[in-house]
Amino acid sequence: MADRVQRERAQQRAEEVVEATTRSSHAVDYDAILDEIDSVLESDAEEYVRSFVQKGGQ
Amino acid sequence: MGIETEYGILAPDAPELHPTVLSAAVVAAYPGIATGTTLEWDDPIPIEDAHNRVLANGARLYVDHAHPEYSGPEVTSARAAVAYDLAGDAAVVAAARVASAELGAEIGIYKNNTDSQGASYGCHENHLLPRSLPWESIRSALPAFLVSRAVITGAGRVGIGQHGERSGYQLTQRADFFETAEGIQTTQRRPILNTRDEPHAAPSRYRRLHVITGDANRCPFTTWLKAGALAGFLACLEASALPGLELADPVAAFSTVSHDTSLTALLELADGRRLTALDLQEAFSEAVAGDAVRRPEAYEADVNAAWAQVLSDLRNDPAACADRLDWVAKRELLVAYAVRLGLNPDDAWGEPRLAQLDLAWARLDRPGPFDALEKAGRVCTLVTPSEVATAGVEPPSDTRAWLRGTLVRLVPERVMAASWDWMAVRDTDGRVHRLDLSEPTGLTAERLGPVPDAAAVDALLRRLA
């Protein structure tokens, strides 16, 4: 019984660690990347997207 | 094989300049070694013909339908296709930088395939096939492969429909622009199977398969697998080792696959079976792996392994492919961005800031989100920057592009004309030699031997006469 509880707790801890690591690596990564690109995005997104007009090609 | 890319082009500060003029300025401004161009604006030659240059790496840089286009040189491996594809991006960006300075207006270069306002432009793949392979067998086998591979080759797109009239995220840039099953045209009513067959080689021996369904990709891995898996599929087709899988309606299926980010949509086959795009790709990948056991020399083993791995990862958790596949990498970033903006990612796709990030992803001339991901080590790089730099100035050594590129590199001013399968080059006495390059793997570095400098070119021309 005690063994099983311990095993389940260990398992739970492992899952928490995995989840936290995954979450934090994603969060840290994307936040840093989004910080970096904030400066290259135009302030008026709607106007920028509307003005991206191309001629048709192949 | 070879890849050709039409780039999006925009100069917001110079709206009076037609995109054909902008594209011509970019082609003319290419700062590397290349054949010349005509810059007479009142020249009777159409602007597109006047702006057609061959580069020292054997590629062609020209104006096509109001876009700058780069056609990479003929290569024999998927890895080389990636290096020359990235070299093309670098060439167009370098040219745009010079042209921007000359015009006094910043020219943006985009590696995507639609403006979501009704226009699409292509990234085409070319594969050389033996004439003995009947078109009938290509016609029955290829559509199911081209449609289902969107789960791998899609560049990802914010918006659904040719005008982005519905909000959503889809796998590909191109699918919404395909309206017919088969045809020779490429600019309207685009066909899944393009029948254009200019082999640029002896037509009695070769066919050129011109594939127009693909997206232009940013992830090198995606480009690699796009080129390598198609080459493997075709090798397997030649060996008659593919399973018989024909779609009932390839055009409808292409949209279905592209619009289904869950990868679970069932596609109806001609025989009534219903399979997902992943099912189809797995069947093709397994057939290729099976034939590769019998004929390893016909395949690239690392491509086959990577193909099977990606399909397995897509089956288990698509997000695991964020380091390899465009549509996944872009989606993960867009979702993170939506969360940061305080939006619910499930219904944020109509938000202009996400569409803007989609465009920024494709933009090559400024550091953007893709570069940030790459710098953070989250993108499989596949080829080194030095391999890409080399591919920008040297032709592949194992195809006829070697002769074409070598002559352009050594004596660009003496190349009077250059096409894929012939060239006209002047010697130092002023005599013009017409060279026959009709055999695609003919005039390689091995066949030609060393051609160290311009002084060696006269002897080479005499030898080839």
Name the descriptors.
heterodimer; A: mainly alpha; 76% helix; B: 465 residues; alpha+beta; 16 helices; 17 strands
Task: Put the structure in a nutshell.
With 58 residues, chain A is mostly helical. Helix content of chain A is 76%, strand content 0%.
Number of helices of chain A: 2
Sheet having the most strands of chain A? none
CA(first)-CA(last) distance of chain B:
27 Å
Strand order of the largest sheet of chain B: 3-4-5-1-7-12
Number of strands of chain A: 0
Q: Rough shape of chain B? A: globular
- The helix/strand class of chain B is alpha+beta
Provide structural commentary.
The complex is a heterodimer of chains A (58) and B (465). Chain A is built from 2 helices and no strands. Chain A is mostly helical and 58 residues long. Chain B is of the alpha+beta class. Chain B is built from 16 helices and 17 strands. Chain B has helices at residues 19-29, 47-50, 78-103, 135-148, 150-153, 220-238, 250-259, 277-294, 301-316, 326-340, 352-362, 369-375, 385-393, 401-410, 445-448, 457-464; strands spanning 2-6, 8-10, 52-54, 60-64, 67-71, 108-110, 123-130, 157-160, 166-170, 178-183, 190-194, 206-211, 267-268, 274-275, 415-418, 422-426, 432-436. In chain B, the strands form 6 sheets. In chain B, strands 3-4-5-1-7-12 form a 6-stranded antiparallel β-sheet. Chain B has a 3-stranded antiparallel β-sheet with strand order 15-16-17, covered by helices on one side. In chain B, a hairpin with a 5-residue loop joins strand 8 and strand 9 (166-170). The interface between A and B is medium-sized, with 24 and 46 residues.
